[in-house]
Design brief:
Largest sheet: 8 strands, mixed
Strand content: 15-25%
Bound molecules: ligand NA7
Shape: globular
Number of strands: 20
Helix content: 25-40%
Oligomer: single chain
Number of helices: 18
Length: 546
């Protein structure tokens, strides 16, 4: 039976393929992609490794996990009905609420019938003659489709530290990104947390409440600023609901899709008193304002950045009683905002508690993990439980762990070994009919806003092809070159690109990721969308079709 997609004589007939589209991942991206493509009448199958929907919010169920974006700016915006019926209870929703929300979305749009859970994709191989992809799951089953959409997330391949003896530990041990569904108790236990990124900070401030003793192993400190979370009253929720059009319009206009955006003033265009008052206001305000809503030169001008860093350092010194501990918590190797700013709730005060100790492993490195704990260069620690908050093989890791092969059997991982190249972060030349939602070199920021845009752009492209009976689309190499050059240009002069972090593609725990690359698109989201809109309006001349 003919399906919605017409076929070319040399392409394998759509009816001979198991599906029109296979989507990998049932997180925020995959769920919306499924919904949109169904709307085009396409036969879609989603493969998801977990047992439920939610992606990030399914896997990261560690204590303290929550949004750093305002809840009402983070949820889907595509359905008025959904906006009308869902109440957020906190300005920055905790993981259980978000997982519940995403399950509600799955129910509402009847998504589960096309999602196969416990289905981890091992490989995806393009067949040139058939113009199709063959997706093989870890259970060995094979599934064919015309189009492949990867919705695997930029931060979803957890990485453990490479420390001798890690497997020998006989107590409990968990990675925050692979947290068990069963409750984990810290009561009466000696707990270690390794890692102080956005995740570690959230977990530490929660674990410190009940652990008998908590030892935090910090490599490089980060600049953390207050989240100022709070409940949303029913009255407030009413106002938020009425304001949704404004909230989403604002997110479309701001540089990184947050409700906060860069202040147009330069640091030195105001008096020192005005500057201080502005920073006090930002520090007392909710969410990312102090990072995303700071002076326009803060992330490009060294002196401006130094002053902002001094302000936050002063706050840390005020909040941490022991001056030696405060100094350990103040970053010395990078300026404020040049790495992802963890958002905190009494994080610094945790180090004033008698049951918490900070160990700087820059001073005393961890030498090994033993069956009973951790050995640093100068001490032996005993633990009942170790938490690894050591992050992810970011941006490309979730794609790298699938054996993806394009034309001529070329491996995506190999293609990217020399340099990361994409077309608008969605396509890679030589990998026809494959589309990435929030792939490398797309606008990130408040990610669901970027996801919705990516999903809609991909859906429009497939509709365009569907209408014309096209069965093949590949990015032209010259378009990839142009886009990649634009990404590189946008990264020039940014202080964040001079610092090691997942945002610059560095992860010391992953082979081949020791040096910085331009891993992210760091221009503004409106610029990104303008570029992509022009491609669509121009009839996708940057793509080769057939
Ligand atoms: P991050 O931000 O990559 O943080 C990982 C943390 O783990 C960071 O403090 C690392 O120190 C530390 N780490 C990593 N490997 C080791 C080893 N081997 N020994 C000691 N410490 C180590 O990951 P998150 O999960 O916190 O956040 C990732 C993003 O997810 C976040 O930005 C949000 O957007 C969501 P380092 O700084 O490398 O010295």
């Amino acid at each position: 039976m003919a399906t919605a997609l017409e076929t070319k004589p040399d392409a394998r007939a759509a009816s001979a393929l198991d599906h029109d589209v296979i989507v990998i991942g049932a997180g925020i991206s995959g769920m919306y992609q499924l919904h949109k493509l169904r709307g085009l009448g396409l036969r879609v199958r989603v493969f998801e490794a977990g047992t439920g929907v939610g992606g990030t919010w399914y896997w990261n169920r560690y204590p303290g996990a929550r949004f750093d974006s305002e809840s009402y700016s983070y949820g889907y915006s595509f359905s008025q009905e959904l906006l009308d019926e869902w109440d957020w209870t906190e300005h920055f929703a905790p993981q259980p609420e978000t997982e519940k929300y995403l399950n509600h979305v799955a129910d509402k749009f009847d998504l589960r019938r096309d999602i196969q859970f416990r289905a981890r994709v091992a490989s995806a191989v393009y067949d040139e003659r058939g113009r199709s992809w063959t997706v093989t799951l870890e259970d060995g089953s094979r599934h064919t489709c015309r189009f492949l959409v990867t919705a695997v997330g930029p931060l979803s391949a957890p990485t453990f530290p490479r420390i001798e003896g890690r497997d020998s530990f006989s107590g409990e041990a968990y990675h925050t990104g692979l947290w068990p569904k069963e409750p984990v108790s810290f009561e009466g236990k000696r707990v270690a947390v390794i890692g102080t990124g956005a995740t570690g900070v959230q977990a530490i401030q929660e674990i410190a409440k009940t652990a008998k003793h908590l030892t935090v192993f910090q490599r490089r400190p980060n600049w953390c600023t207050p989240l100022h979370n709070g409940p949303i009253t029913p009255e407030e929720m009413k106002e938020i609901r009425a304001g949704y059009p404004d909230i989403f319009r604002r997110c479309r206009e701001t540089a990184a899709c947050f409700v906060h955006t860069i202040d147009p003033r330069g640091t030195f265009e105001v008096t020192p008193e005005e500057r201080e008052a502005f920073w006090e206001e930002l520090y007392a305000g909710r969410g990312f304002g102090i990072w995303q809503g700071n002076f326009r030169d803060m992330l490009v001008d060294r002196e401006a950045n130094r002053l902002a860093s001094d302000f936050v350092a002063k706050k840390i010194r005020q909040r941490v009683k022991d001056p030696a501990v405060a100094e350990k918590l103040i970053p010395k190797d990078h300026g404020f905002g040049t790495r992802r700013v963890p958002q905190e709730t009494h994080y610094y005060e945790v180090y004033n508690q008698p049951n918490v100790e900070l160990v700087s492993i820059l001073d005393t490195p961890i030498e090994r993990i033993t069956p009973t704990g951790v050995e640093t260069s100068d001490r032996t620690f005993e633990f009942d439980l170790i938490v690894y908050a050591t992050g992810f093989d970011a941006i490309t890791g979730s794609l790298d762990r699938i054996d993806i092969r394009g034309t001529g059997g070329q491996k995506l991982k190999e293609k990217w070994r020399g340099a990361l190249t994409t077309f608008v972060g969605v396509m890679v030349d030589g990998f026809p009919n494959m589309f990435m939602v929030v792939g490398p070199h797309t606008a990130l920021g408040n990610i669901p806003r970027s996801i919705e845009y990516n999903v809609e752009w991909i859906s429009d492209l497939l509709e365009y092809m569907q209408r014309r009976g096209l069965t093949y689309a590949d990015a032209r190499p010259e378009a990839v070159e142009r886009w990649t050059a634009f990404v590189v240009e946008k990264g020039e002069g940014l202080l964040s690109n001079e610092v090691d972090s997942w945002m610059t593609g560095v992860n010391q725990n992953v082979e081949g990721k020791q040096t910085r690359i331009i891993a992210r698109y760091s221009g503004t989201a409106p610029d990104y969308r303008r570029w992509c809109d022009e491609v669509a309006e121009g009839g996708y001349r940057e793509l080769a079709f057939d």
